[in-house]
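Q: I'm teaching a short session on how sequence maps to structure, and I want students to see two examples side by side rather than one. Could you give me a first protein with its sequence written out and its structure tokens following it? Keep the formatting plain so it prints cleanly on a handout.
A: Of course. Example one:
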Amino acid sequence: MTSSRTKRRLEAIEVVLEGLRERDARTAILVEGDRDVRALGDLGVPGPIVKLNAGESLLNMCESLARRYDAIVLLTDWDTKGEQLAMRLRANLERTAVRVDTLPRERLGRLVRPEVSAVEALAPLVERLRRAVGTEARRV
């Protein structure tokens, strides 16, 4: 039998994911790489999802994003590199007119760590939790 704690954890994760699914098209999600984009797609989160471009400075990328979007959801990994990256991105984005949303990242981080420290591992975790509570069907 599945614990009620597991069910509550999955429900809380699903609430955050639903918020990401329902955001408006002028709000982009910024992730670290291709596998993060795929993981969010597997969870039914639509674009725009933008991955960091290693060939461009963070400042230039942030200025470019601010010209194209009204808001940016930062969704970097929950490891040390991801934490540092989130802080740098937030500081650069806040210098522009774009709104920066870090709340989904913070909420997911509290719900998935220490088991998961990377965005790319979200989809497999959610699927395991869904199987554990008997809701294998995707909520999209």
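Q: Perfect. Now a second example for contrast.
A: Example two:
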Amino acid sequence: MKVLVFLAVLIAARLAWWWFVGRNVPKFPPINLDPMDPKVIAARQNARDSVPRLRELFALHPESSNIKIPFTTSSGVTEFLWAQILSWDGASLRVLYLTPPVTHTGRLEREHTHPESDIVDWVVQLPTGKYIGGFSTRVMFAKARELYGTLPPILAKEEPKYESM
């Protein structure tokens, strides 16, 4: 009987660890991109230069058009969040934040309005599953190769989905 209780406690402890810690551990360490890296600067410029293309794609695929924009958190840190474009009126975009800010505390409304000039990256998923845009994501793929020698499997599966511009 004591052995069964011990095994039950051991299994419960393992499940609790997995629930609170194990399942939240990323499959590979986050890949931080230095905003002053020339590749990151070039990616941001390519994204800005191709905003007219994004506008065309948004008209065709409004439900799958996303942008990366700056957000100043409650702690004063500027983070770059992915957001779905809900509407685009002139030079103003109404968006829904998709990624939560890491350094923000308190309530955060997910719907915001940003000027078009805030766009630092964009990506549109086509009905085929392919992506157009994703300039910073492409830099992340290259950085992952530098760090790990090869892409982690989850990234290797995603990379071919990005079509060339």
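Q: What should students look for in example two?
A: Point them to this: The longest helix spans residues 2-20. Also worth mentioning: The chain has one domain: 27-161.
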